[in-house]
């Protein structure tokens, strides 16, 4: 494994970052959060126009590490839309030979992820398809016409959630529970959520550092005060080493290494805890303005709570990692 990104990977991140900066600025996030939609078509189509949908297709020349880098930038921007479900749906459809991979890869069809053991999915009202990944039951692709959707109030205002009821016989089975692809898709989902958390944690750290340089008290920037310097340093020290967990988990999945499932579980557990801790520290570093709706830090705080709960808690994944390690 290379311990740095290639120029192509950096270019992909830069392209995604620039696209989201144009199509999903903080003003648009405010408007979206105040509205009743659970999907932003403008920013979604802007992302899909970059050709990101098919990143996990075997013939794309890319892999989970590349997809994780994209999800990291999406987390940084608090992007709307079911990006993780879309990426995994293309991978599942191509690997199984069932479904319309081209429509999914282009973004013409929208797929969201329904995790086994949970009835909740992001952007469900806008989805054409539901990718159900259940380690115990296998992988199914279910059309929206076969499900019942009930919007719910959730913390994350950037990825509204709905309760989804799906009949057991609905849709098409892509992989049985015993098929190795079922476990691989479940592990890939953990890595991509961890990448989203990494991007968010980096974003709130950067916001805190920038604010500490601008905000003045007693005639000087508050970033000169030693207590705040320590707090910002602790945030950076929490985020940067965690990046290696995500990158390694994605690399291990791509290389089909024996410890890939354990690495995925550890990445999901640690990054989601780190995201929560970092957003809390960011609110404290900002003082009163960090609590305001207008400033926007709350979007990342809420997203951190959603990432932590989605696909299982850190405690669940640490227990699974311990079991996989034979402890």
Task: Kindly describe this structure.
- The chain has helices at 7-23, 26-34, 41-48, 64-77, 83-96, 101-106, 180-214, 226-255, 260-286, 297-309, 314-324; strands at 111-115, 120-122, 129-134, 138-143, 148-151, 161-165, 172-175, 216-217, 220-221.
- It is of the alpha+beta class and 327 residues long.
- The protein has two domains: 7-175, Orthogonal Bundle (Butyryl-Coa Dehydrogenase, subunit A, domain 1); 180-324, Butyryl-CoA Dehydrogenase, subunit A, domain 3.
- The strands form three sheets. A four-stranded mixed β-sheet has the order 1-3-4-7, covered by helices on one side.
- Helix 8 runs antiparallel to helix 9 and helix 9 runs antiparallel to helix 11 (314-324).
- The radius of gyration is 19 Å and the shape is globular.
- The relative contact order is 0.11.
Order of helices and strands: HHHHHHEEEEEEEHEEHHHH
CATH architecture of the largest domain: Orthogonal Bundle
Biggest sheet record: 4 strands, mixed
Helix content: 55-70%
Low-confidence parts: none
Number of strands: 9
Distance between the termini: 27 Å
What is the CATH topology of the largest domain?
Butyryl-Coa Dehydrogenase, subunit A, domain 1
> What's the mean pLDDT score?
94
| Percentage of residues in strands | 5-15%
Summed up, the domain count is 2
Number of helices: 11
CATH superfamily of the largest domain: Acyl-CoA dehydrogenase/oxidase, N-terminal domain
The value of Rg in angstroms is: 19 Å
Give the overall shape: globular
- In terms of structural class, how would the helical and strand content be classed? alpha+beta
Reading off the top of the CATH hierarchy, the class of the largest domain is best stated as Mainly Alpha
Main sheet: strand order: 1-3-4-7
